[in-house]
Amino acid sequence: MKKVSIVIPLYNEEESLPHLMKAIAGVLDGQELEYRVLFVDDGSIDNSFDVCKKLYEEYPGKVHVYRFSRNHGKSAALNAGIGKADGDVIITMDADLQDDPQAIPDMLKLIDEGWDMVSGWKKKRYDPVTKTIPSKFFNFITSAMSGLKIHDFNCGFKAYRAQAVKSIEIYGERHRYLPALVYWEGYKVTEMVVPHHKRKYGKTKFGMNRFFNGFFDLLTLLFLRKYLANPLHFFGILGIIFCLAGTVVLGYFGVQWIITRQMRIRPLVLLSLGSIIMGIQFFSIGLVGEMIANTRRKKTFTISEEIE
Ligand code: UDP
Ligand code: MG
Q1: Which CATH class is domain 2-227?
Q2: Contact 59, 29 (CB under 8 A)
Q3: Helices 231-260 & 267-295 angle (0-180, nearest 10)
Q4: 92 in helix, strand or coil?
Q5: Lower CB count within 10 Å: N or C terminus of the chain?
Q6: DSSP 8-state class, residue 295
Q7: Which range (14-18, 263-267, 277-281) has the least confidence?
């Protein structure tokens, strides 16, 4: 029988948890599958952990609970839960009842049809505009930069073939880019419209800084994806451009000096000297980067099929 693991990161969601577990059991108990719910308590400071322990007793064999010693963020919580999950399919969803477990069977169907990842799309959202507008912008940029044409990257509600999600490393703010990360690994990613509800209990855990942190992480991601293994390919080009520009201009003044025997220290001369120095620095940074990349060279590939 197919095994499904449902990973739920949570931070101070004590009121929502019992309703969520009830809703999940309501949808999945009648299905032809085995399921486990993995609650990852991301260092909650309310009673969430005790509520989880109660659920563990109330739903024997269906619930696992993991607790961080302090708050590490949603990405870390997802990472921990996915690491513990042993299902063939792994589903992630938020704990705040904004995601509706009713959608799970349809997600599983898409995985059966051959997709490696099904990403939820909150087409009709029940969040304030301060959130929906930045989110539209963010999704547009991420889609354009990643090459994956979907509408909603950051929805917490997703289903994966286990291997696809275990092939990536989730930390920092990376939970915002999971479809892109999985897609870049070569897996087949699609999206599915999911129902979305207003937050009933508690409040959102992400403030305005979500926007900036998310954007910086996107830049890092793009940079790392392309140049992690070969930093010199990036810094080397900058080094060449700066050195060349400086040398050409200085060369011009040099020739002028040979012909006229006159040389004035003009701003442009200083600028070209600066440019050459910067170029050399870019080279050095690239070389140092290469050294770091070489000392901690780790697995950069995933084997998707094995016939032995
Ligand atoms: N969350 C978490 N750790 C955090 C912040 C949030 O595990 O540091 C969980 C939170 O409990 C919820 C999910 O991540 O289950 C999404 O958070 P939230 O609903 O606050 O985000 P929003 O829906 O406002 O984007
Ligand atoms: Mg929410």
Answers
A1: alpha beta
A2: no
A3: 150
A4: strand
A5: C
A6: H
A7: 263-267
Mean pLDDT in residue range 100-120: 97
Maximum alpha-carbon separation in the chain:
93
Residue nearest to atom 10 of ligand 1 (CA): 10
Pocket test for ligand 1, best of 11, 49, 69 (most atoms within 8 A of CB): 11
The domain spans of the chain are 2-227, 232-295
Residue 92 pairs with which residues in a beta bridge? 7, 158
Residue nearest to atom 18 of ligand 1 (CA): 204
Encoding tokens for residue 261?
């025997």
- What share of the chain in percent tops pLDDT 90? 69
* 126, 132, 136, 142 alpha-carbon torsion, rounded to 10°: -90
CA distance 293 to 124: 44
The number of C-alpha atoms within 13 Å of 198 and in the hemisphere containing its C-beta is 3
2 alpha carbon, distance to own chain's centre: 27
Atom of ligand 1 nearest to the CA of 77: 7
Which sign, positive or negative, has the C-alpha torsion 145, 146, 151, 155? negative
**Which position has the token pair 């499904």?**
4
- State if residue 95 touches ligand 1 by the CB under 6 angstroms criterion: yes
